[in-house]
Structure formats: C-alpha cells, structure tokens
Amino acid sequence: MGRDAGDEGGSAVTPSAEFPPLRPEEVDRLGRIGQRWRGPRPSDGLPVDPTLDRYRGRPAAGRSGRLTPIEMFAVAPPEPAVAPPEQGGAPAGELIAGEPANLPRSRPVRALTRLRRAVVGPPLRSSAVLYERMRKLVALPVLSSDLLSSVAYGPEAMLSVLVLAGGGALGLSLPLAAALVVLMIAVGISYRQTIPAYPHGAGSYLVASDNLGAGAGLTAAAGLMLDYVLTVAVSVAAGVHAVTSALPGLAPFTVPLGVLVIVVLLAGNLRGVRTAGNIFVLPTYAFVVAVLALLVAGWLRAAGRGFAPVAPPPVPAAEGLGLLLVLRAFASGAVSMTGIEAVSNAVPAFRPVEWRNARTTLGWMVTMLVVLFAGLTGLIHLDGLVPRPEETMLSQLGRLTFPTGPWYALIQAATALILLLAANTAFNDFPRLLYFMARDGHAPRRFLHMGDRLAFSNGLLALSVAATTVFVVFGGHTASLIPLYAVGVFLAFTLSQAGMVVHWRRRPGPGSRRRLGLNALGATLSGLVLLTAATAKFAEGAWLIVVAVPLLVLLFHRIHRHYATLHRALELRPPPVGPAPAGPAEGEELPQQVRHLVVVPVARLNRASLRALAYAASLGQPTLAVHIAPEEAEADRFREQWRAWGSHVRLETIVSPYRAVIGPLAHYLEALHAVGPELTLTVIVPEVVLRRRWHRPLHSRAEQRLRAALRPLPQVVVTSVPVHLVG
Q1: How does the UniProt record describe the way this protein sits in the membrane (predicted)?
Q2: What is the rounded distance in angstroms from the CA atom of residue 314 to the CA atom of residue 307?
C-alpha cells in the first residue's frame, strides 16, 4: 500500500532517523522493567547541577581564549521564545549544545574541522532541514541535469551502432527516435502517477518494496545504485570529451580532469541541497538555451533547402544490418532517458506541496527531453552527419550550424558544463536511496547520518569513491561505459512501474483502471528495453551489471540479517516473574541482577595504580588486584611492597615465565568468568594519558592492548582511570 501524506514516518527524511522510536510492545516492556528497578532515583541529589545554570559566568575563558565547556551549552528559554518541540524547538529548561561544542578538543583535528567548514560552510541546525528544500525553478535544473544532458550523447550512441552497418543504415535513426519518444512519454506519464501515490518519496526502491516485496525492492535499489555510479562516470567522461573536442591538447589529461570534476561536485554537494542547487542552476539553463538556439538555427537552415536531407559520407559496413544491431542501437539511444526517475526519488526535497511541485517539474523535464532529443536526432539526419571518434556529433552540428562567431564556443562550453554537472543528479539521489535502505536495515546505518550541512555526507563520499574508481578503471572513455548504462536504470524503471500496477490493483477507485493501464504500459515498454539492453549488449559489458545486481542484493540481505540479529540481541524482554534471579550472560536489565567482581591489574605501585585502586574501592564491590611477574623473585618483591602499603585489597600474583603480560591476564580473567559465569568482571586499568603524539612510541601502551584482548570476552567491562601527563 502507498504511504499517505500524513505518514511522516514512512519515508520522510529527518535527522532523527538514526534514533528510531520504540515499538508499542517495547514501551510496554520498558514500563514493566522500570517497575522492578531497584536503584537510585532520578530525584536523588547529584553533586553537580546537570543544567550547569548554577555555574554560568565562571570561570573565565579557557586556554587559548576558547570558551569554557560551560558556556558551550545554553538552556532553552521559557515559551514562547522558542518554537514548539515539534517544529524544531526545545522544551524550556532543556540544554542545547552550541556550535562551539561541535569542535573537537585536539588541535590538529580542530584545524581540519575549520578547513572543512571553510570549504563546505558552517553547520546548520537540525530544524533547518525544513528550509533545505528547492522551489521548482531550482529543482528543474538540479534534477534534470542528468536527463537533459543525456541528449548530448544519447543520439550519438544510437548512431554509433547503426553506422556499423554502413551509411545507409543511418536512415533507421528516425523510426528508432520515434519509438524512443513514445517510450519517454509513457515512462514520464507513469512516474507522474507514481509521485502523488507516494508523496514522501516515489523511488523505485520504495515502490517495488511496498508492492512487490523486499527482494524486488532490493533488486531495484541495486540497479539504481549502479545507474547512479555510472551516471557520474559517464557524465564526467562525456563532459571531459566535450572539452577535449574543443581543446585537443588536453586529451592526455582526461583522467586527472575527470577526477578533479568529481571532487568539485563532492565539495559542492557537501554544502547542502539548497546551496548546491543554486550553484548548478545556471549551467543547466545555459545548456537548454544553447541547444534550443542550435535547433532553431539548424531547422531554419534545413527549411531553406526544403528539408531535403544531405547525403551522409560513404561509410563502409563493419557488420551486417540485422535485428540484433537494430536492438543494440535502440538500447544505446535509450540512455537518453537516464535520470527520468530523479524527481520521483527526490520528492521530499521540494517545497510544499511537495508532490504537486514534483509532478509539475517532471512534466517540464519530459517535455524538454522530447523536444531536444527529437530535434537533435532529426537535425543530425537532415545534415547527413556521421559519428567520428575525434569529435562529438553535437560539436559537429555546432560547427556546421555556426561556422563563424562565438556561438560554437558557447554551445561547447554549455555542453561541457552540463555534462560535467549532470552527475549532480546522482549526487542528489544516491545518498537519499542509501538513507531509505539504511532505515530499513539493508545498508549500513551510517548512511542515516546527516552532516554539518544537512546533506548525507557518507552517501556522497561513497558515490564519489565508487564513481572515481569506475572512471579511472575505464580510462574516462564514454564509449566503454555506455554499454553498462541502460540495464540498471531500466531494471529500476520496470520494477517501479510493475509495483505501481500492483498498487492500483490493491486500491481500486475512480480512475484506478486508467492509471493501472498507463503504469502497465510503462512497465511493459521498460521491460522490453531491459531485455533488449541485457541481451544485445551482454558481450559489450552489460554482463557486468547482470552479475553485479544479484551480488549487491545478496550483500543487502547479509547486512539486513546482521541488523536483525543485532535487534534480537538488544530488544527489551519481559522482566522475570517473582524475585529477580541473576541475569543471563550480558542479559541483566535490573540493578539487582548484576553481581560484581572488580579486578585491577597492577604492574607497579605508583600514583596511577593507587588511583585506580582507590577508584575500585570507592565502588563498594568485591575487589581483586592482579600482578603479572616475569619470575618468582619479582613476585616476592612486589608482595613485600603490597604489604608495606597495607594490603587493603586482595592481591593475586601470577608468574609468567615467558614474560608475556597481556595473554596470561586475559586468560586468567576468562578463567574467573568460567568459574563464576554469573559475575560481571569490571577491569579497572590505570592509564597514562600523553599530551603529545610523538611521546606514544616511548611507551608500551599496554592499556590499549589489554582492552583489545578483553573485548571478545563476555561479561567483562573495561574501565580506564586516567592520569594526565603534564608537560
């Protein structure tokens, strides 16, 4: 079933997604556990004021003029000075961390943080997520850059296949283009229906998961993820090719230029949705104006000669004209539709009313795509142009239409910009897709996190790394990447539209049959293109996508299995009936279920070890000190020192004749747990904290090694008692 407009929790994007609410049955269990809790009450007196209000105004600013930690936190004023909590405000009296509290304490890391903020901008408050939205005139260029830029290489990709059968086969470009226009309109109308049905996000993953099941949704997600990575790689490769067509001297630097463009796109998108949108508005509109000017001038030239087509130059046939070649050409031309789903994936990024603005924007995009694609294909046919490896067809058309004046340079500059920035559509949608997958437990939960500028920084970094890898591996060659392109995106198209067919069958009503028919048409046509692309381009590289999709789905299932196991381990369980027995291993939920044994490893008696012993004794629990000695003589000497101290804590010495310390201690603690499995061993480790990094190689750092050795042991809590080295 589709998610209703009021279903904010269904697919709404919120910074709180990292902290999912408890289910009703878990809240009930929590209340029952709380009724049996035996421990200090929250109302019991604390030695400090947790609101810090009592200490404001003192002491003075800290070292290096920085604010003291007290001043980094503010108390929310009483109503109505703050917005209601549901609008991003805080209840009166609640502490609010100020911006300085986000800075790390380490000077080098703090310097890197300030450098990052200089690049991406200062952090935004969580409540600003409501304002990080786009109006239609900004969303159109941001979300259509991929779709509209594909007309710069889509017709050429189709003709590059047809020309293999000789110049005479180029005449098939017109009927193939007409079929592609029908496909564009059908898929566009289908997605226009999908948007209001899923007003909080109509991506293929959500629609397929909701109606066809998790497997179909994950398959659509795998196809989309591959499509987004290839969108960045192909767009950047095509943009660099446009630059090198105009400036051949830059051809040897294709790969470094492409990597630089991806880095610039990453930096721009890390600044947030709204800022990135404002950056990328002008290039898209400039490209549309430039291509429209080219079409007007070119068609006027063709009208002057009565629309008589110019005969193309003779091209020898490299292979015979057959059905398979025509299907390959059709599938290659279909890459002009990549990006048509971008608006449906990004519905939450629009200003209210989100779904209505998204649907209007999609209508504009499809109209512009049909006009530009059909106009360019027809004009290329009338001018008798053929693909050439050293120059793009759009560049040839620009030179022919504007042999003098600045228009050719302007067209190439606009084309290069739109192709380079077309990847921005993927930068908008890829992190959002990972967000929804992570929310459902099919992707790492780190992709739920919003960065300083309310952008999904981890998703942006993942896309940049993957796209850079693909771009470098294929050497930035557009022709090598195109065969990989259509399979993933049309797989997502097909599953999304098939999911909408099921959606309308489940929700009959006025107009549902018409909508079902339109989505069925879109699913059928998309499925045919998918089969065509997968079979006709299988040997050219499409097999990589065919293999990668099931491997990604398998990976998603394994991730979900891990999170399901984690959830079962951490979910609240009903409390025991009657007196609280000792809890199972790492299963205690009540204070009275926990039985303690405090263990303090002591290497030598000094200020650090005595402080750890004092801390252990202050807990009021059974305490044991352990000393590892390399030989008997040292063990006797340590016992004498212990008696001189007063033997205030039980001591156990262990002789390690092979001089190992960490191994014997870890196995001894494991043995203690074996004889007392109901015990929680709290290991209190004295630790010297060094101020300078270069001091670290001067110490054995046994505390870190001990912590790593004890981490796999159940029922063992490791606590450090630090002593900070001054100077």
Answers
A1: Multi-pass membrane protein
A2: 21
What is the number of alpha carbons within 13 Å of residue 91 lying toward its C-beta?
1
Q: What is the CATH number of domain 132-563?
A: 1.20.1740.10
Nearest to 144 by CA among 328, 295, 345: 345
- Alpha-helical runs (H) found in 247-392: 254-270, 273-304, 323-333, 342-345, 354-383
**Confidence band, pLDDT 50/70/90 cuts, at residue 684:** very high
What tokens does 453 get?
Answer: 């500028």
Is the bond into 80 cis (omega within 30 degrees of 0)?
yes
The token pair at 421 is 């920035």
Comparing 12-26, 250-264, 303-317, 654-668, which segment has the lowest mean pLDDT?
12-26
Task: For residue 680, give both structure tokens.
Answer: 């929680």
The most confident of 167-171, 218-222, 279-283, by mean pLDDT: 218-222
Cβ contacts of 502-510, under 8 Å, gap ≥ 24: 502/211, 502/212, 503/1, 503/2, 503/197, 503/207, 503/210, 503/211, 506/1, 506/211, 507/1, 507/2
HSE-up (13 A, CA, CB side) for residue 667: 8
| H/E stretch holding 629 | strand 623-629
Nearest to 611 by CA among 692, 508, 511, 685: 685
Asked if 315 contacts 386 with a C-beta cutoff of 8 angstroms, the reply is: yes
| CA 436 to chain CA centroid, nearest Å | 9
Which one, of 346, 16, 367, 339, lies nearest residue 199 by Cα? 346
Residue % of the chain over a pLDDT of 90: 21
pLDDT > 70: percent of the chain = 82
Measured in degrees and rounded to the nearest 5, phi and psi for residue 423 equal -60, -15
- What CATH code would you report for 591-724? 3.40.50.620
Stretch 9-15: mean pLDDT: 59
Are 96 and 76 in contact by the 8 Å Cβ rule? The answer is yes
pLDDT for 409-453, tens place per residue? 888 888 888 877 777 778 888 998 999 899 899 999 999 888 877
Cα–Cα distance between 707 and 711 in angstroms, integer? 6
Look at the block and give the residue holding tokens 């992190």.
Answer: 431
d(CA 326, CA 328): 5
Highest mean pLDDT among 82-86, 92-96, 609-613, 700-704: 609-613
Q: Is residue 559 a contact partner of residue 434, using CB atoms and an 8 Å limit?
A: no
Residue 102: which residues within 8 A CB-CB, separation 6 or more?
113, 123, 452
Domain ranges of the chain: 52-92+98-114, 132-563, 591-724
Compute CA 510 distance to the chain's CA centroid, rounded to the nearest angstrom: 39
